[in-house]
Amino acid sequence: MAEIPRLNGVIKALEEGKVAFTTFTPADIESAAALADSSYDGVVFEMEHAPLDAPGLRNVLQYMHSRRQILEQGTLAPKVTPMVRIPPNGGEMNQWIAKQVLDIGVFGIVFPHVSTVEEA
After folding, report:
1. E-strand spans in the chain?
2. Which residues pair with 63 in a beta bridge?
3. The pTM of the whole model exceeds 0.90
4. Which of 7, 62, 105, 117 might form a disulfide with 77, Cβ 3.0–4.6 angstroms?
C-alpha cells in the first residue's frame, strides 16, 4: 500500500524531529496571500481576539492554496499549513466552533489557555 503523504507541514516537521516555525496573523486575504509562499511551516489565523468570521476564514483559505504549487509538487498539501486560534478556551465547551473551522478547511486548531489534557 502506498504511503499517504502528510498534509500538515507543522506535524511533518515535528515528526522529522525538526523545529516547526509558525506565525500569527489576522484572518484577512492580504495576510494569507503574503504568507502562502513564505518559508514558514504554518500560519495561525487569529480569531480569539478578532471576530470569528467563518465565511471570511473560508475566503482566506482560498489564498493559501496555489494551483501552480499543487501541479508542480504533485500534492494537495499547502506550502504553509493554515491553522486558526479560536475564541473558546479549555474551560469552555464550544466544540461546535472547532468542528466548523475544521469543516471549512483549516489543518489545525490552537485552543487558547489550555494547560492540561483534560482541558484539551
Report:
1. 22-26, 42-46, 81-85, 109-110
2. none
3. no
4. 7
